[in-house]
Write a structure and sequence with these properties.
Oligomer: heterodimer
Strand order of the largest sheet of chain A: 9-10-8-7-11
Radius of gyration of chain A: 26 Å
Strand content of chain A: 15-25%
CATH class of the largest domain in chain A: Alpha Beta
Number of domains of chain B: 5
Number of strands of chain B: 33
CATH class of the largest domain in chain B: Alpha Beta
Radius of gyration of chain B: 29 Å
Distance between the termini of chain A: 65 Å
Bound molecules: flavin mononucleotide, iron/sulfur cluster, FE2/S2 (inorganic) cluster
Strand content of chain B: 15-25%
CATH architecture of the largest domain in chain A: 3-Layer(aba) Sandwich
Largest sheet of chain A: 5 strands, mixed
Shape of chain A: globular
Strand order of the largest sheet of chain B: 13-12-23-22-21-14-15
Number of helices of chain B: 27
Number of helices of chain A: 24
Structural class of chain A: alpha/beta
CATH architecture of the largest domain in chain B: 2-Layer Sandwich
Largest sheet of chain B: 7 strands, mixed
Largest interface: A-B, 35 and 38 residues
Structural class of chain B: alpha/beta
Helix content of chain B: 25-40%
Number of strands of chain A: 20
Chain lengths: 604, 831
């Protein structure tokens, strides 16, 4: 089997993330280098999905020895071929060095990987996602075969329910139960009686989140197989993959996977001679965040503006064109095949009592190691931040982590030992959401963080409900005032009143959760708000109106770097003499801070 | 009946109601803003929040279905405060000072209205003052303080479009206009644009309404709760003193309209059922409400003519207000006494066949009846016709009557239809409200089959388009019947399988596809228009429609152009003999047998008129076609000033009452006919009201129609000299003898197509004509110049032009008014 994933190859991450860092050039350089040595036939350069450690990209892994090379450049290609492939010698300078400076030849022993469980991502980074044979060689479509040949639709839903799988798209609704609801719902719309639909929600619009994209780019058939299983369990004839148009590579890959599945008879009429007919098409989303909300998504597929609609009726009763419809997240669906194939325990055996299995997150912010991670639910935030994330950059102090996308919440350092699962996060005012984890340190301002996320949400509101459209705007006005040092004590209560009206008076999840960033920061960092309002001080030293820049004369050696960097010409001082900043002219842009290499600029 | 507990009281509700409707049925008020009874509720404004046991949070009453045993609270402290909060937020985008001012009741007394401000800054500057739903809501919700900073949008007011202005500074984004345009009218002109706090209502790519093919139906204006959308014409008229229900006199849909009256003038029009009774004074149904059977069939809708057009005509400055007599070559205003005396002296000389009457199908039944009675009984002439109603080609009247008797269907039956066949009609222009019903039926899954020589706009929206050679409709329909006979119903074994078209290439031929559609999708409704009745092959086609409708057990709706075509037939204002019909009358004038002609709302463009010894013109305006030749002009009162009856295309007689006193010295048409009769000493014309006339008409034996001798239709085989067949569409901008475009400014803007001629690309290439060139079309009767447009929707040798019937066209001088086709040659105009 030529294409068996486990033979010799050089795996090059070809996820959109690594590609943007020059991964494509590395791949072509490797191919050319192998050709020059006449090895093109023997060694495959495989474009795989994301290895997760994007921070270190472009990354390549040589197989079967699993050597892990980081920050590879096209110029390194010849060395890799001659030294590593032909000479069998590891190239030291391309190895990853851990915090202690130790070079690690494989992922073994890397803090970033030690606490992870790559189960959903098990093929991502291993196989060539564009080869259906790679997927088939790694148990692909065996779950579908098992389901169609040996299981009833009910028993498929039962197995998923028993596994305890909960939706990975935000709300955490039990997936098996969702399937059963759509299965038993009558389909009696005038035009399309008898029809049911299943939809894969690949709209992933959270800023900074890319887990779903990586999964689709790295293992599209796994998602597709899950969708077909969902279709079988629900009794649907048609599935859609609703995917952002801004994900062109993911779109191409899932569309290719769909074509391949048709060719091999996993889609279409009478799948695997079971009598089950099922079709799948993609539908491109126009990039509005709110289109990920399920009722807005349905509107969008029907060709209307993606505005959420009231529930009831729920999509499971009357969804697409009035027919019962199940909507599941990409990652939820990717869990389905292994559950069906290996049994409910496959999922059950990891996680906590109520939150089973693993979850992917996009780890970002001020941690040392950023990237795509997959962890068992219930892992503590400390493990994520300090072990996988490798701790805070520059040994600063951890302040808070924003979890669950823009309308998630901020969890403060005091709760760092809380487990990462649905219930605990909800109790903290945050949510698992789609899986964004943005870590912040002492240099972040809680008010500013709240403002940042709220302004995203405000701009993405569909505009239908006054509380969401205008309430968030009023909150932003207030936060703006506070940031500018013009806040009043009464403003904090106004924020709470508004938050209450927005939560209660909004139609959809976007509005109902929009105040979360403000509410959680107010809850855990009220003192920071008060510092802004009462003392007119920004403890994070972020809010421009509340900070001053000055030069510490004992540290300044008069190198003039800062004066040259200052766009406002606010820094005075002669060469080799301590400089000073004219406060009236200072724009508080921080250019001097970045320019100074003696840490002489003080922000207060 | 199921029951619901509302605020501790168990009350019944109609199954299928929302919680809001259930509350309203029981007299419990819940504040609303985005709710409108003719629109689907979407839960946008969040004011109707309630508490429901077992439901999380605060569901909106308008979108929550009421269920038996449900426990609902509508007025708790939590709800009251949430509503106040929501309304404050809504008002944070809207000029609110006046709304929350505790002295707003007394403001009008003190403040001088200054309306020079470019945008609205307070209620006194708003066209909706006194009718605005925000004004009532503020009191209902109990808002007296505005805790939030204002985020006024500061947008320029959109004034480019005809008929209405848009001030989106006042818009509260309830989405009613968007919903009515998209879901009810199904025109899709309006949409939400942008997101977040930038969200606005607008058109695609922010174009003007003219550019995006808005129909100017006005529905969006009608449902808007604020002053954001407002009629240009009545913008500053304020709250009407009273309203009067009437019937639109333009087309045969017969929409019910509410005229808004102030100081004895019509200041506005709203389609019946469109305006919420919560706004301002409009709670009571109009003053002189008409008796109508059942709900308004237009269901809160109208079209640009009824909604904006006709009313402008009523008080138009150039309206004929006084009788006029020609003296010394000029028409001089005079009194009724003088005019009647003049005619009483002249008319007796023309008793008998030298007198003729042409009556408009826009007349009320009473007027048509009185006029024909005058012609037949007083003048002793059978030369009576209504040529624009139905051309008097043999048997047409009879065939129309037969279809009406056997197959007539109400407009609303379109909504239950599973298939619809449209033959020879362009309802979007001619019968916009019927076109809306067709679109609604399509949206609900009905199949549409369109028979038309050109790929009209409707044909493009159709499931099957059956192109037909002009005049060959009957043969096509017979072919369709044969294909139907071959079709088997689903389930039965069949030799031929026709897959339904999935937007792809026709399979098994368009006729077979249509047959399959019709077989599998019943009930069916057939609509036919002037493309049938005004074609030379009308008789054969009507026969074929009768047969097809019989095969399908289909309902048939005739799309007559004018409002009272059936009424005029019923009143006997049509010829019973071929010699006495329009063609015969024109012949008679030409050869001098007919010397006196009475035109009641008709407008033939005839050079022969100059031969007449006496031409009496009775109308609202003096049409240029006849002004030169008229000897006496009699000012007719308009629909707003008379009572009477119009029989719509469903055959429904709709009576209506006057809304305002006659403008100037105008009189109802029936009154004038009766006065003339009395002036000539005739008995039997002592009517004191239209109702008297109706009573007499109603008792009459229906006069026979269509007994003229049968004659084969004159063939339209193209002749070498005139190689093109020109399809002529009577466009929507004429009423009685006047072109609305001449009297109504906005109409001028939207009549885009009037001087245009569409050519197939192939013909254009052959004639070396490019888009926008001037071309001259010449028929045996005359010639006219048009702007050429290239069209992919026409086959070679077929051309198409839309003609304003009031302006006529040199092409069909002397032909039947409203003729649909003529043979022409086309030349490029050089120089
Ligand atoms: C504003 C908003 C945005 C959302 N975006 C997404 C998204 O991008 N992807 C997703 O899977 N779910 C998203 N959701 C959640 C979906 O509404 C829905 O709950 C989910 O797709 C259900 O799938 P699951 O049960 O597999 O989680 C969003 C919800 C809201 C309120
Ligand atoms: S809550 Fe916000 S996003 Fe959701 S429907 Fe309302 S306005 Fe739109
Ligand atoms: S006038 Fe009619 S067609 Fe035009 S935008 Fe308003 S509702 Fe739509
Ligand atoms: S223009 Fe009027 S009807 Fe349309 S959304 Fe605004 S307020 Fe509502
Ligand atoms: S559709 Fe016909 S009846 Fe209705 S408003 Fe328009 S012209 Fe009048
Ligand atoms: S009336 Fe129910 S939400 Fe507006």
């Amino acid at each position: 089997m030529d294409n068996h994933p486990l033979i010799n190859c050089i795996a090059v991450c070809s996820d959109s993330g690594c590609l943007s860092g020059g991964g494509e050039a590395v791949r072509t350089a490797l191919v050319a280098a192998l050709e020059r040595k006449g090895l093109a036939q023997q060694v495959e350069v495989r474009a795989t999905g994301c290895f997760g450690f994007c921070e270190q990209g472009p990354i390549i892994i040589t197989r079967p020895d699993q050597t892990f090379y980081v920050r590879v450049k096209p110029q390194d290609a010849d060395a890799i071929v001659t030294q590593h492939i032909l000479g069998g010698k590891i190239i030291d300078r391309l190895l990853y060095r851990d915090a202690a400076g130790v070079k690690l030849p494989t992922t073994e022993g890397m803090g970033f990987y030690a606490k992870q469980r790559r189960r959903i991502l098990r093929r991502v980074g291993e196989i060539d996602p564009e080869q259906i044979d790679h997927y088939l060689a790694t148990d692909g479509y065996r779950a579908l075969e098992k389901a169609l040949k040996t299981m009833t639709p009910e028993s498929v839903a039962d197995e998923v329910e028993r596994s305890g799988l909960r939706g990975r798209g935000g709300a955490g609704f039990p997936t098996g139960r969702k399937w059963r609801m759509a299965r038993i719902a009558p389909s009696n719309s005038k035009e399309m009686a008898g029809r049911k639909f299943v939809i894969c929600n690949a709209d992933e619009g959270d800023p900074g989140a890319f887990m779903n994209r990586s999964l689709l780019e790295g293992d599209p058939h796994a998602v597709l197989e899950g969708l077909i299983l969902a279709g079988y369990a629900v009794g649907a004839q048609q599935g859609y993959v609703y995917i952002r148009a801004e994900y062109p590579r993911a779109v191409r890959k899932i569309e290719k996977a769909i074509r391949q599945a048709y060719e091999r008879g996993f889609l279409g009429k009478n799948i695997l001679a079971s009598g089950f007919d099922f079709d799948v098409e993609t539908r491109l989303g126009a990039g509005a965040f709110v289109c990920g909300e399920e009722t807005a998504l349905l509107q969008s597929i029907e060709g209307r503006r993606g505005n959420p609609t009231p529930r009831p009726p729920f999509p499971a009763q009357k969804g697409l064109w009035g027919c019962p419809t199940t909507i599941n997240n990409v990652e939820t669906l990717a869990n389905a095949a292994p559950i069906v194939l290996y049994g409910a325990d496959w999922l059950n055996s990891t996680g906590t009592e109520t939150s089973k299995g693993t979850k992917t997150f996009a780890l970002a912010g001020k941690v040392r190691n950023t990237g795509l991670i997959e962890v068992p639910l219930g892992i503590s935030l400390r493990e994520v931040i300090y072990e996988i994330g490798g701790g805070i950059q520059n040994d600063k102090t951890f302040k808070l982590v924003q979890i669950g996308g823009p309308s998630g919440g901020c969890v403060p350092a005091e709760h760092i030992d809380k487990p990462l699962d649905y219930e605990s996060l909800r109790a903290l005012g945050a949510m698992v959401g789609s899986g964004g984890l943005v870590v912040m340190d002492e240099d972040n301002c809680a008010v500013d963080v709240a403002h940042y996320f709220l302004s995203f949400i405000q701009a993405e509101s569909c505009g239908k409900c006054p509380p969401c459209r205008l309430g968030t705007l009023q909150m932003l006005h207030i936060l703006d005032r506070i940031r500018q040092g013009e806040g009043e004590a009464e403003d904090l209560n106004r924020l709470l009143t508004l938050a209450d009206a927005i939560q209660k008076g909004s139609l959809c999840g976007l509005g109902q959760t929009a105040p979360n960033p403000v509410l959680t920061t107010l809850r855990y960092f009220r003192h920071e708000y008060e510092a802004h309002v009462i003392e007119k001080r920004c403890p994070g030293r972020v809010c421009k109106s509340l900070i001053t820049y000055s030069v510490q004369s004992d540290r300044c050696n008069g190198c003039t770097l800062c004066a040259r960097a200052c766009p406002a010409e606010a820094i005075l001082g002669d060469l080799k003499q301590p400089h000073s900043i004219v406060i009236e002219k200072c724009l508080r842009c921080g250019a001097c801070l970045d320019a100074c290499n003696r840490d002489a600029i003080l922000v207060n | 009946m199921p029951t619901i507990t509302l605020n501790n009281l168990s009350v019944p509700f109609t199954p299928g109601s929302s919680v809001l409707e259930a509350a309203r049925q029981n007299g419990v008020r819940i504040p609303t803003l985005c709710y409108h009874p003719i629109l689907k509720s979407v839960g946008a404004c969040r004011l109707c929040v309630v508490e429901v046991d077992g439901l999380r949070g605060f569901p909106t009453a308008c979108t929550t279905p009421a269920a038996d045993g449900m426990v609902v609270r509508t007025d708790t402290p939590a709800l009251r405060s949430l509503r106040r909060e929501v309304l404050s937020l809504i008002l944070s985008e809207h000029p609110y000072t006046c709304l929350v001012c505790d002295r707003h009741d007394r403001c009008a007394e003190w403040q001088v209205t200054i309306r020079k401000a470019a945008v609205t800054t307070g209620c006194e500057n708003c066209p909706k003052n006194g009718q605005c739903e925000l004004q009532t809501l503020v009191d209902e919700v109990g808002l007296s303080l505005m805790p939030y900073s204002i985020s006024y949008r500061g947008l320029p007011v959109e004034k480019k479009d005809p008929f209405f202005d848009r001030d989106y500074n006042l818009c509260i984004l309830c989405g009613r206009c968007v919903r009515v345009c998209q879901d009810v009218r199904r025109t899709g002109t309006l949409a939400f644009i942008q997101r977040g706090s930038q969200t606005l209502v607008g058109t695609a790519f922010d174009k003007s309404h003219l550019e995006v093919d808005c129909e100017f139906c006005g529905s969006c204006v009608d449902v808007c709760p604020t002053g954001a959308l407002y009629d240009k014409r009545s913008k500053w008229e304020g709250v009407p003193e009273t309203t009067a229900r009437t019937v639109c006199p333009y087309c045969s849909v017969g929409c019910e309209l509410d005229l808004w009256i102030k100081r004895g003038k019509v200041v506005g029009v709203r389609p019946a059922g469109a305006v919420l009774p919560t706004g301002g004074l409009l709670t009571a149904p109009g003053g002189a409400a008409a008796n109508t059977d059942g709900a308004p069939r237009n269901n809160g809708m109208a079209c640009v003519r009824g909604r904006f057009g006709l009313v402008e005509m009523v008080h138009a400055p150039d309206r004929v207000r006084h009788p006029m007599l020609r003296k010394g070559g000029r028409l001089i205003e005079t009194s009724w006494e003088d005019a009647l005396a003049f005619l009483a002296e002249k008319l007796p000389a023309y008793r008998g066949e030298s007198f003729a009457l042409l009556a408009s199908p826009h007349l009320t039944s009473e007027s048509a009846y009185a006029l024909q009675k005058f012609a037949r009984q007083v003048m002793g002439s059978g030369n009576v016709d209504s040529p624009t109603a139905l051309p008097r080609i043999p048997r047409i009247g009879e065939l129309v009557d037969r279809l009406r008797a056997e197959r007539s269907a109400p407009l609303r039956s379109l909504l239950d239809a599973r298939s619809i066949v449209v033959i020879g009609a362009n309802p979007r222009l001619s019968h916009p409200v019927a076109a809306v019903y067709i679109r609604q039926a399509q949206a609900a899954g009905a199949r549409l089959i369109v028979v038309d020589p050109r790929r009209s706009e409707l044909a493009k929206r159709a499931d099957v388009w059956l192109p037909v050679k002009p005049g060959a409709d009957a043969a096509l329909l017979q072919e369709l019947r044969q294909a139907l006979a071959r079709e088997t119903i689903p389930g039965e074994p069949s030799n031929e399988q026709h897959a339904l078209p999935q937007g792809g290439a026709p399979q098994g031929g368009a006729v077979a596809q249509a047959a399959h559609c019709l077989k599998t999708a019943s009930p069916c409704v057939i609509l036919y228009g002037s493309g049938v009745t005004h074609s030379l092959a009308a008789v054969e086609t009507l026969d074929a429609i009768h047969d097809l409708a019989g095969d399908l057990q289909a309902g048939v709706i005739p799309l007559f152009g004018a409002a009272n075509t059936l009424g005029v037939l019923d009143a006997g204002a049509v010829a019973v003999d071929e010699k006495q019909n329009y063609a015969g009358i024109v012949q008679g004038i030409a050869n001098g047998e007919i010397k006196a002609l009475y035109l009641a709302g008709e407008m033939p463009a005839l050079d022969e008129l100059m031969k007449l010894e006496l031409l009496i013109v009775q109308d609202h305006f003096l049409s240029p076609n006849v002004a030169e030749y008229a000897h006496a002009v009699l000012p007719a009162a308009s629909f707003a000033e008379v009572s009477g009856t119009l029989v719509n295309f469903e055959g429904r007689a709709q009576h209506f009452a006057p809304a305002i006193p006659p403008v100037g010295d105008t009189r109802p048409d029936w009154w004038i006919a009766a006065a003339l009769a009395r002036a000539l000493g005739a008995d039997g014309f002592t009517y004191s009201s239209a109702a008297d006339v109706w009573q007499e008409l109603d008792e009459q034996e229906r006069p026979p129609v269509g007994q003229a001798a049968s004659r084969p239709p004159s063939a339209l085989d193209s002749q070498a000299d005139y190689p093109f067949t020109l399809l002529l569409e009577r466009n929507a901008y004429a009423y009685r003898s006047s072109a609305l475009t001449d009297h109504i400014k906005g109409m001028e803007l939207c009549k885009a197509d009037e001087e245009s001629l569409y050519l197939s690309v192939e013909d254009a290439r052959r004639l070396a004509v490019a888009e926008g060139d001037l071309v001259q079309a010449t028929s045996p009767a005359g010639s006219a110049t048009f702007l050429a447009h290239l069209s992919a929707d026409l086959p070679a040798t077929l051309a198409y032009a839309s003609i304003n019937p009031a302006h006529g066209s040199q092409l069909f001088v002397g032909m039947l008014p409203g003729s649909k086709v003529c043979l022409v040659k086309i030349d490029k105009v050089t120089s």
